[in-house]
Amino acid sequence: MTPVTEVAGRRLSLSNLDKVIHPATGTTKGELLHYYATVGAAILPHLRDRPVSFLRYPDGPDGQLFFTKNPPPGTPAWVTTTPVPRSDAPRARQVMIQDLPSLVWAANLVVEFHTPQWRAGSPAVADRLVLDLDPGPPATVVECCRVALHLRERLAADGITAYPKTSGSKGLHLLAPLAPTPSAEVSAYARRLAVEAAAELPALVVHRMTKALRPGKVFVDFSQNAAAKTTATPYTLRARRLPAVSAPVTWEEVADTAAGGDPGRLVLLLDAVPPRLERYGDLLAPLFDTSAAGALP
């Protein structure tokens, strides 16, 4: 029998709670749902008012993975959807996760949450910049931290303040609040930063995706600033054997990792996130401070 629970006045049917989703730790779907309910106050501001794309992995990372932008079949009528500009589907709509019941409903589908850099009310007008630092083996997140420190200073020189989070996979993301700016302009600026970094740190950075160029270096992926692209939402679990979270970290942790060379220190699993929230609060809260938003030069 499928358990039914009430979340903030909404009745939800939750399925397969004992099913193991992350096999490396035996993490079950019930534990996954508990995680999202626990961190709801932190993740919801990063989801709210943004059309959400889902990477679904209902049978865990070793099962079928599929990416969807359309509202999944059976989406409840009370879950908010919004029209989105898509050339392949002029009348397309996507889900928005506006409240805790919607978050738990989506988590029950077993998903990664991915969001664009713009809000539904202003498509293709970004309110943040993102740089995705992706290491090519044998490089690790240690090299990503070294590149992140360089990019932090470079952004600061333009009056833009960056905040780091783990990707939940191998790398690191840098996020920066912006005054509303067309996505095309943000993409062009981010590309210039990547090209500059590759020129200034040629032994460490590449700005092109070509795999042959990437071993031992960090690919600075600027493409996620394009209006059609999305990035793993802060606090989302990733479809990995370990229940790793794309979670914010401090610049001190980034500097220590860059100096100390231990990539494991920035692998944050779901059990580590609630204590970090108690200690630090949301390290990415400045993304919502409009007075701190930078402007592109």
Describe the structure.
Helix 1 (29-38) runs antiparallel to helix 3. The protein has 7 helices and 15 strands. The strands form 5 sheets. A 5-stranded mixed beta sheet has the order 11-12-10-14-13. It is globular, with a radius of gyration of 19 Å. The mean pLDDT is 95. Helix content is 27%, strand content 22%. The protein has 297 residues and is an alpha+beta fold. It folds into 2 domains: 4-115, DNA primase, PRIM domain (Alpha-Beta Complex), CATH 3.90.920.10; 125-288, Alpha-Beta Plaits (2-Layer Sandwich).
Count of individual helical segments: 7
CATH class of the largest domain: Alpha Beta
CATH architecture of the largest domain: 2-Layer Sandwich
Reported by name, the CATH topology of the largest domain is: Alpha-Beta Plaits
Q: What summary fits the major beta sheet?
A: 5 strands, mixed
Q: Give the overall form.
A: globular
**What's the domain count?**
2
The span between the termini is: 58 Å
Strand order of the largest sheet: 11-12-10-14-13
Portion in helices: 25-40%
Order of helices and strands: EEEEHHEEEEHEEHEEHEEEHH
Structural class: alpha+beta
Question: Number of DSSP strands?
Answer: 15
The averaged pLDDT comes out at: 95
